[in-house]
Amino acid sequence: MLQAIAGAVDTPVYVYDGDAFDERIERLQAALTDVDHLICYALKANDSLAMISIAAHAGLGADVVSSGELLKALRGGILPADVVFSGVGKRRDEIAMAIEVGVQSLNVESAQELDVVAEEADAQRTVARVGVRLNPDVSADTHEYIATGSSAAKFGVPPQEAYELLVRAQREPNLEPVSLSFHIGSQIFDPSTIFEAAERAEGVWRDVRAAGVELREFDVGGGLGVPYMGAEEFDLSAYVSQLGKLTAELGATLVLEPGRWLVAPVGTLLTRVLYTKDVPGRRIAICDAGMTELLRPALYGAEHPFSFLTDTAGRQTGLVDLVGPVCEASDFLGKDRQLPLPEPGDLIAIGFAGAYARVMASQYNARPPVPEVLAEAGGWRVIRERAIIDSLLDTERA
Length: 398
Ligand SMILES: Cc1ncc(COP(=O)(O)O)c(C=O)c1O
What we know:
Layout: H1 2-9, E1 13-17, H2 18-31, E2 37-42, H3 49-57, E3 61-64, H4 67-75, E4 83-85, H5 92-101, E5 105-108, H6 111-123, E6 128-133, H7 159-171, E7 175-181, H8 192-210, E8 217-219, H9 236-250, E9 253-256, H10 260-263, E10 267-279, E11 282-287, H11 296-300, E12 306-308, E13 317-323, E14 332-340, E15 347-350, E16 372-376, E17 379-384
Parallel strand pairs: 1-16, 2-3, 2-9, 3-4, 4-5, 5-6, 6-7, 7-8, 8-9, 11-13
Antiparallel strand pairs: 1-10, 10-11, 10-15, 12-15, 13-14, 16-17
Helix pairs in contact: 5-6, 7-8, 8-9
Bound molecules: pyridoxal-5'-phosphate.
């Protein structure tokens, strides 16, 4: 089917397997059957409307970090009461919108932000449900750019301040404290750091309860890792059983905000080799997709699996760099890979491109956005058209 899609829609193109997305949602839900929980799909991983609507049909809520994501969550069919609004830099107008639509919780990350929420709730003569994001000061074993839980990070507030903000929210007539959250990073395999963070959050939870604040949601963020290059799977059952036990003891709803785990494995980026160059020790294959479509290799040195959809029988294997067409030395899709030596016209499927791929795309080098396709129930359809070059000029004035 991937060859047919590339033939019909051209490359580059992102293809998502909607059935596989549904299956992953069901797997997570099945692991949580005995736990009072709410899964808030982290839209930042993949905010395509068609994917959001699959999540909504499966009964998921959403974790959003901007008014744009909030709008998309609602448009995709997710109920406002199932939306948590995270993010370290929410603007006043975004906070106002979240209060107006009635999100489940605005998770604040500073005293100044709590002031703005209180002012906006007052202006709307309503009560805003708030949470506080704790910075638990733990170091997740992941890339430094996606670790968010240490005290030096910009995210969340330390335990004492989390306590103070929740107690203060309880006193404010326009605020209702409902949640305590943390998110220590992404692409995590060892859940022990998440458990450590949960223990710190439990301390804050019990302290605020002693001060008369009855929270409802214990929000552990996302971060579940996926095996990009065939490494081990994240141990869902250990994760769920430990956190489920804790939230049952606290009488809390366990809120999870997974993004990558749900969507990374169900997406593929299709690209064609335009040209090849042989340099000492390797072949460089210049593809029609690059850092503008898949930034993760340039940004984090991330690795994605490649498979050839062109017949490579009889080809020699050798060291290959797959690079993009963008005028940057950091524009690569994968380096130092042992692959059949690519030739112009080869069609290559880049796996695990369902998360943090299209959402991080840019128009650098004036490259228009590429299309997305949803494959479902044996068929497929375009869910985002390829932008025409002229669209790049739509909002510009000479
Ligand atoms: C607050 C918050 N929740 C959830 C996520 C989703 O993380 P992941 O895609 O690793 O599950 C992120 C990612 O940055 C986040 O910042």
